[in-house]
Amino acid sequence: MQGVLYVSHGSRIPEATADAIAFINQVKKQIGIPLQETCFLEISEPDVGQGINKLLKKGATKIAIVPVLLLRAGHYYQDIPEEVERIKVEFPSIQFTYGEPLGVQTRLTNVLAERVGETNIKVRKGSKILLVGRGSRSPQTKKDIEQIASNLQMKMNVHVDVCYLAACSPSFEQGLRSSLEEEGYSRVFVLPYLWFTGVLFQSMESEINNMEKKEKNFILCRQLSDHPIMVEALKERVLEAIHSNTNL
């Protein structure tokens, strides 16, 4: 019997965990399979092993592992496969297939543009966007964020710079300072390439509120969150994972 395991990141902030669960529940309703569970990579519970065990107890013989991740990075390449390998030792007869993160998609760039528009502040001459990625040690992460920035710049006809919250450079703080000191831009839209709220988003709010803004106007946009395009994109990844030939 087919099962689906959604693997989200996890957060110390209850609101972030609740947001992830509510979002995944929207997707579950569109997948015609009775055996579906949600788990988390860290901090929140259930963890990956507990999520798999829940599906096995319900009779799953084949499990599609769906990473609720935006881009390929360490969680995708290492953390999730390692957890599944540990479980496979106990249950060698169970087949595990592996889905893909959402990756770089034009429709996700459209969501970013909408998040800027939702501020109801005009993107005029003298405006720029600071696109903020989570960051990782994987070189592909930086390439993907730079591609997304390029796509967004072309779509909105506005200059887009990038920075990162961890592992990559420039850091978020460096991105803010550079924007503060840069001439020619008085309005900066700070656009997080994050799925849900959480510690990282709160740290961005704090840094923006605490910095000396001088004549600059920094506008923090919403994260990608539960936009209908995000729901549809994850739904497609679930269906791909169910029919995937990529085994873990």
From TrEMBL:
Pfam families membership: CbiX
UniProt cross-references to Gene3D superfamilies, sorted A to Z: 3.40.50.1400
Keywords tagged on the record: Lyase, Metal-binding
Spans traversing the lipid bilayer: none
GO molecular function, one term: metal ion binding
Taxonomy, superkingdom: Bacteria
Matching InterPro entries: CbiX-like, Sirohydro_Cobaltochel/CbiX
Record keyword Translocase present: no
Protein name: Hypothetical conserved protein
